[in-house]
Amino acid sequence: RTVKGAKGVMKGGSLGGKMSKATKNAIKHMPKGERAMVLATLKNSTSGMTAWSHKKIMERKGGGGKEDASASAKSSRPAGSQSQNAFALFSKPDQRILIIGDGNFSFAASLVTIFNGKGENITATCYDSKEVLHAKYSDAKVHIKTLLNAGASVHYEIDATRLWAFHGLDAPYDLIVFNFPHVGLGIKDQATNIAANQELVSGFLHSAHKYIHPKGALCVTVKKGEPYDSWRIARLGLAVPGLRLKTAVDFQPSAFPSFAHQRTAGERGVAAEGEKKEEDNGLIGNGAKTFVFSGDAETGDKKDTEKAKAKGKGGPGAKPKASGGVAKRRSGKAERK
Questions:
Q1: Rounded CA gap, 36 and 293, in Å?
Q2: pLDDT for res 137
Q3: Strand ranges, E, within the chain
Q4: Cα dihedral 116, 120, 121, 127 in deg (nearest 10)
Q5: Measuring CA to CA, how many Å separate 309 from each of 164, 166, 208, 315, 323?
Q6: What are phi and psi of 214, to 5 degrees?
């Protein structure tokens, strides 16, 4: 780590020593909430100043600070250029974004922070019921409040493989995101575990691709290494009619303030109760990749229309049948401010 703690950011530390007096002063005079978020982001970053924190510091300095801009040019992004990281996918706050399986809703809340408090275009969902969610994650309440205050919509009991049963959909979306999918069944046999997770991701891609804008994208983020490499995410996407792999970019949690990856019960190395989020995010920091798929709307709609006519169901708007498996049908429950 480049920073030992929040104090190290302001009073020296390895990163603090690189910051000019103007930068330290800018952080000092930020609103309390924003200052806490910047300090936490700098503290938890594995590669120095993140893009978001650097942006906030520059804003507080009125766009000045050339000496810091040049010093932070390389460290403002976790690895490589911004165009090679998942952070670049969320550069436009006017994008309509649907987030699937967001655990404690920390990823959606981080986007609100990145978008300067604007969340009207964010639809955040989780698989758990409201009661189960709050029993699992003590910090979910704070993230949900952030989302609702920003105008985002929050939905519970949403099955990623059966989005057609989610009546709160307001398609099309520019981005549909599923970060770190995992069935969480505690399957010990590796081959069976891999097959179950492939079924989950495949079900999501088949379910979600009908709801993206013609110029939009489906994003699936998974860890690098085994058994995740054996899921063959790219191949699963290419098996969906009308879907193609656009790119695959690195994912770094430090680029998303407040995001804390929550491992699913049954996933290898599940955190003990009370374990710090940095320890979970550290596992992601060892390597994670976001696969970005784009849809061929014309091809997909044509095939859907042909199938619908053959079955007498009347077109691409007809709801597909459930694909089977262990997933339950969940129509979803919404929460709005």
A1: 35
A2: 93
A3: 97-100, 122-125, 153-156, 173-179, 212-223, 243-250, 288-295, 333-335
A4: 100
A5: 19, 24, 22, 7, 20
A6: -50, -30
- Spatial separation of the C-alpha atoms in residues 16 and 68, rounded to whole Å: 12
Encoded tokens for 336:
């709005």
CA pseudo-torsion sign 163, 102, 33, 112 = negative
DSSP string over 143-204: HHHHHHHTT-EEEES--TT-GGG-TT----EEEEEEES--------SHHHHHHHHHHHHHHH
The answer to whether residues 224 and 287 touch, using CB atoms and an 8 Å cutoff, is: yes
Positions in the chain short of pLDDT 70: 1-18, 32-34, 36-37, 40-52, 55, 63-84, 261-286, 296-333, 336-337
pTM of the predicted model as reported, rounded to 2 decimal places: 0.65
Token digits for 241? 């009619």
> Which residues have CB under 8 Å from 35's CB, separation 6+?
27, 28
